[in-house]
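Risk mitigation, structural track. In case the binding assays with zinc ion fail to produce interpretable data, a predicted complex structure has been prepared as a fallback.
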Amino acid sequence: MQEKKIYVFDTTLRDGEQVPGCQLNTKEKVEIAEDLENLGVDVIEAGFPVSSPGDFNSVSEISKNVKDTIICGLSRAIVMDIDTAAMALKEANRKRLHTGIGASDTHIKYKFNSTREKILNQAVSAVKYSRKYFDDIEFYAEDAGRADQDFLAKMVEEVIKAGATVINIPDTTGYTLPEEYGAKIHFLMNHVPNIDKAIISVHCHNDLGLATANTLAGIQNGARQIEVTMNGIGERAGNTALEEITMILKAHPNLNLNTNIDSLKILALSKKVSKLMNMPIQRNKAIVGGNAFSHSSGIHQDGFLKHRENYEIINPSDLGIDKSSIDLTARSGRAALKHRLNLLGFELTKFEMETAYTEFLELADERKLLHDEDLYELMNRKNE
Ligand code: KIV
Ligand code: ZN
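Fallback model:
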């Protein structure tokens, strides 16, 4: 089966940077944008130019400095926003506008105090107006996750007619279940007559921990662009994590969906984003957490040492990690202790090993995690 390319739209610098305490200065944003280009993302959402002079300046500087990747700016479906985004993106080699409006009845009624008809007209007018500056126009139907299916399909059809080339179907509130979200994309693929003139993009939030699962369901049902952030940083519980969804596609080649992401560059950028944005990465975070490639229980360590694939589904070398780590704690077994002692040059008889293991457990109960120095200490004690 032919492989399908999935475009990666990174919004670390927009949805990610909205998070309180994560704000970056222009120099930092340009540095991250250059790293994102090196990583292989296809589109960088650089900011929301009308939101502040600082954000305008960052979008403008990123546009001047990043050469090949598409640079995108966010706007509401409002003339002033679109004009401002066009100015900020003026010098980009390849530029995209991301404009849109609420599509759910909740947003239409309680956010805009409006009607479906008026919102549809505003959406179409905004896209038509954007063509004054842009060929590449992405339209977001905000809160599409909770929108009425037929109205959403109508909106998608009309904005494509007006000139939108990418249609973003955001699960803004992170409410949708994977099956439901997949079905929504499937419905649009099959009920919007001009859908072949645009690509569908998926933008999922993690309020129920389903952002990655929903994104996967979206691309399995025909979406061709994923909207992601490094480390899953983003509004409230965050967005789909770039490292998760791209490694899922790498670990499951039978899906025949692939991206341009160079997985060897993920870890360095993940650490940089975490440091600059002041957002520590939890140790058990998939792919980039400190424990993602460390084995700690005796049963797992024994199985891992017999055959790596007993307990690992991703090869750490895909991320540039030399090897997985075997943590020595009071939950470790004899196999792990023997393995580490051998690496340190100690060869013990079966009997010696039994005594060493008993003493090891006492030390591990006291010190929690044992390092090589602790093992030297243990072995020296025995020789005293
Ligand atoms: O979550 C959302 O709906 C958004 C839009 C602005 C695309 O971030
Ligand atoms: Zn969002």
